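dumping the sequnces here before i forget
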Amino acid sequence: MMLLYIADAHGKVKPGISSSPKARITSYTSGNKDAAIHYLFVAEDGYDEHVKNCENYVKRTLFPFLENPHNSHTPSEYVDPIHTHITYKYVSDIVEDRIKNHPLRIKRVKQAFLPITRYNIKTVVDGIKNFPDKYLEDI
Amino acid sequence: MSTQTKFKWVANKKKVTAQDRPVNELDKQPGYVDANGIDQLAKLFMDSPEYTQLKKLLETAEFKTSRKGKPQRYDQMPKLGRIKIKHLLSALAVQRKIDFEHLVRIIKTWDSRRPATINVIKLPNSNTCYITDGQHTVLAIALRAKMGEFPDVDPKDWLELEVNCQIVETSDFSFAREHFLGINGDDKLPIIPFEFHKIHVFGKRLDSPLKDTQEKYELANRIQTELEAHNLYPVHPNSQDRFKAGSVVHVNLLSKLDVADVRFFGKNHSTYWDQEPLDSMEMLPFQDLRRRLEKDGEDFTSADHAAFMKDLNAIVKEVAGGWAEFKNLTQQVYPEYYCSARNEDPSGVPKDASLVLLLQLYVKAGGTHLNQFKNMTTFVTRYTENNTNMFKQLDVAKRGLFK
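..and the predicted 3d for all of it:
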């Protein structure tokens, strides 16, 4: 199961993909600041590459706004906090536009199960696997 | 004929606007000269983060220590002078061996306007000068003089000719060796394929728009014109435009293509993937596909062909979302196929593996267009061995899409 998340990682907006989100969210937690996934999207069975396509699109679109302290040609994957208009919702809208327009076979985790932290991620991921209709909705 | 496979093409609904496309840096008219004064360029640099970083570095003790023993004064820079050929020495201690092919190339393509300043080190209190850069140029000048190729030089005076030199007076050979490396590569920004393409296109568009010019300029311009006809625009690989709709980053591949190849993939890209940058998989694999189909007698204007192309694009979109992801999928499944078929790891992924996988998926999805072509039918069976193939290495869920 391939997931696309939009997380608060180390206090910054961070889109990414993972098939093991629990390890990922733990790695984004530092000090007293818990990482949280604000939006989560899930590939339908057989469509993992659609999530990768969506991630590539999001990174292309966000490219001018990604943190790049060394002015490198390959910036980090974190949105630079100076771009305050790039919110979790803003990134989520980019994802949803791509899913609808391209289109891609990806569903969205219902708002009722968000945000996700390291404390509830296992429950949510198990829920997506076992009760997809309850947790997921079409875009 | 309508499409044949179970996958139907679904177009991207997003409309591409002019802002979504990269700036076409090669769309220039004769007379175009984008000149900047050094003061302007300096200001540009001093406003950049690179300047801030450099300024910090110059102030560090570590940097200052690293410069010890390296002259830093302005008046210690090389002096310009003219030195007689007979006083110039080529020393293997600081230079490469003379390459006769390179020498012949210089003489054959001679143009007296070309910069020909030689770099030398001059031993203090002597006339001995060692060439650190430009030995082929000096030899070419000498030989052209000796052979009577300079109409204004008496061949018997060939060793008395003076050449323009940048002279550093030193006996420090380690400096000379470092200088040789710097001038021949280490200190130079390499010319990237985008720059080559740009210079060749400008060679036609700016310098010779109305009359024939060198074939490489003509070909680059024909390729560029065909790309533009399909809203495809070569961009510098570090440009912010490289992710825009129709950007062409893999300019290095253009020299391997002819106009018919560009027309083939350009038409496909603008028809199906107009919102996307051009992926490398749409270039050489498409060239391969076109040439194989042509060899088998495909009618590229037929409805059958159009339906076949639509099917291929629908499969890519369904299975991977796009060409880049399809290519990555091949990179993932080919090693698994090879390992399963031969019980050993492959040394790499063959260049045609993505195309073979795509055509195998086309057949698997019910496509029959290739059945009429003998060579294509054989090509599709590549990478099928010991009862396995790349399709069988796809995960269960993905194989399930083909049921």
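The two ends of chain B are 23 Å apart (CA to CA).
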